[in-house]
Amino acid sequence: MVISQGAFAAMVFTDRWFMSQLDAVHIAAAMGGAVAAFFSKSLFVGLISYANALVAQYYGAGQLQRCPRVVSQGVIIAVCALPFLALITVGVGQAFAYMGHDPLQVPLERAYFYALMAGSFFHLLKACLACYFVGIGRTRVVMLVDVAGICLNIPLTWLLVFGHGGLPELGIVGAALGTVCSQAFTIVLFLLFYLNRTHRLRFAVPESFCFDRGVMRRYLRLGSPSALESFMNTATFNLFLLMFQGYGVVQGASMAIVFNWDMLSFVPMMGLGMGVMTLIGQFVGRGDMQRANQVISSGFILALSYSAILALVFLIFRVELVEVFATDDSYFAEIRTLAATMMIGLTTYMMADAVILIAGGALRGAGDTRWIMLTSTSLHWLMLVVQYFVIVRWQMDPLVSWWVFVAMLLMIASAYSVRLYRGRWRRPERLARVMQE
């Protein structure tokens, strides 16, 4: 899962690097358009992605025939989401003009956003299939598919962005189309594994193509808090990002560069978090929580070790890492100074990210999604209120805003640690309610 999530990070990283070959405005526009697209899909992605824990719980309980039924319910949810996604696309697309961004940036981020949203269904379906294979423990399938996807995405994006190989030069739109095409390709690969005869017979896949009221009820009951958490947190982050980009192209590009390096830490650790969530979910299904501590301890050791090593590298080589995205325009001298300072904040909260992902994975796997939703969204919105005063009302220095963001992540990590330590989430009566349909 670390390799799988790392492939996604490499894809986004490469897209941003291609944009840096154009100019700083394209870097900022790609960041704004991508975050807006993820925000627009976040409610449905958050809901569908809870398939991981559901499948793991059924798999742990030995109810193999119910595992693919989770996929069928996820596809139903994805189809029902399409009209809402179309309306959201129109609304958010028109909102870019009112965000106070540089006039050169707005049409670029709108074009990038529209192209990504055109592939929304592929994104949802891919998430559902990937979570299914993670839930049954076949993470190598996910790794192979995601690596194959990135092997297509990087050269295809290069061709579409710069117009090589006889293809039209599409610029930022080409980067988005490369992403959409690679998602469609990975879905085909997932279906080859999913419809394989051995897998099909073992999990009774043909009998799963139906509406299952019990599975759908669990999906909505346990997944809705995760969906709302994903939506609300993405909304606050998106609004924070849009306010921060109101400082100007230099600040927007600096944040895009810093978050690009952040992904090399955060996104692979998401794979560890998914692994912890899967194992905890399987133990919940089996009614065996004695090994939960081993899973959580192993997750923390791996995540904290990885993030500590990477944080040290980022701190020592922060200027050199920023210069990887050097542009030929007049903006980059200021970008180098600001982004290098922001990298110090990044190294500060990387350990907090590790705690959030591992603790959050354990709590989600045990069905403690409502508490996570309330805690995480409350702290995110508190951060946004503070950011409004810092950026809009008081017009303070961008670094003040950046350190407010860092403080919020440290607070979330502390709250998750306390919840995990106190252990209310693992009481037998609570776990019994989680498994009820």
TrEMBL record:
Q: Which GO terms describe its cellular component?
A: plasma membrane
Keywords assigned by UniProt, alphabetized: Antiport, Cell membrane, Ion transport, Membrane, Transmembrane, Transmembrane helix, Transport
Residue ranges crossing the lipid bilayer per the database entry: 27-55, 75-99, 111-134, 141-160, 172-195, 239-259, 265-284, 296-317, 337-359, 371-390, 402-421
Q: Could you tell me where this protein is found in the cell?
A: Cell inner membrane
Location (main, coarse):
membrane
> GO molecular function, one example?
antiporter activity
- State one Pfam family annotation: MatE
What are the recorded Gene Ontology BP terms? monoatomic ion transport
Q: Membrane topology per the record?
A: Multi-pass membrane protein
The domain of life for this entry's organism is Bacteria
What name does UniProt use for this protein? Multidrug-efflux transporter
Q: Which organism is it from?
A: Pseudohalioglobus sediminis
